[in-house]
Amino acid sequence: MISTLLLRVSVVLGLIGMTLGMVMGIREDFTLAPAHAHLNLVGFVVPFLAGLYYRAVPRAGASVLARYHAWIAILGAIVFPIGIVVVLLSGSAVLVASGGVIVLLGATLFAVIVFRTTRRSAVTTHSAAAAERTAVPPL
User: Fold this and answer.
1) Is residue 47 within 8 Å of 69, Cβ to Cβ?
2) What is the spatial distance between Cα 26 and Cα 79, in angstroms, rounded to a whole number?
3) Kind and range of the H or E element at 81?
4) Where are the domains positioned within the chain?
5) CA-CA distance, 69 to 34, in Å (whole number)?
6) CB 120: neighbour CB atoms within 10 A?
7) How far apart are CA 124 and CA 64, in angstroms?
8) Which value, to the nearest 10 degrees, does the dihedral of the CA atoms of residues 18, 108, 129, 5 take?
9) Angle made by CA atoms 12, 64, 14, in degrees to the nearest 5
10) Is 29 left (phi over 0), alpha (psi -120 to 50) or beta?
11) CB atoms near residue 31 (< 10 Å)
């Protein structure tokens, strides 16, 4: 299930980001703070929210596009912060630019998925089904 993959990967990347933050604090060297912040955002927050969305809207998570989104988002969540580290330590921007494009592609795919699964007809159909399941039976 794509939602499980995203939730698990995001938690692991979140732990790595938090560990990086603790190491920076212990060393009192915050050179890598931008990488830490982006790892926490695109590595923990964004995939975790996508995983929750796919849990809330299973039809969205079952699509082929969702699989592409998940793997692209994971790749971007790893490449982009590493690219930031490379820029901060050596000045080379090739990896960060590539990672940024990957993150943007993942976000675009997710936007397409959200717009497709929240169209008025999709929402009303889902709402009607939910109302039917929770309706109180007649006495």
Assistant:
1) no
2) 25
3) helix 64-90
4) 2-134
5) 24
6) 7
7) 23
8) -40
9) 10
10) beta
11) 12
List CB contacts of 127: < 8 A, sequence separation 6 or more: none
Structure tokens at 24: 């920076």
Phi, psi of 110 (to 5 degrees): -65, -40
pLDDT tens series, the chain, 139 aa: 999 999 999 999 999 999 999 999 999 999 999 999 999 999 999 999 999 999 999 999 999 999 999 999 999 999 999 999 999 999 889 999 999 999 999 999 999 999 999 986 555 555 555 655 665 555 5
pTM of the model: 0.81
As a whole number of angstroms, the distance between CA 44 and CA 136 comes to: 40
Output the CA–CA distances (angstroms, integers) from residue 25 to 32, 40, 54, in the order listed: 11, 16, 35
Q: How far apart are CA 26 and CA 44, in angstroms?
A: 22
Please give the distance of CA 126 from its chain centroid, rounded to a whole number: 24
Question: How far is Cα 71 from Cα 27, in angstroms, rounded to an integer?
Answer: 34
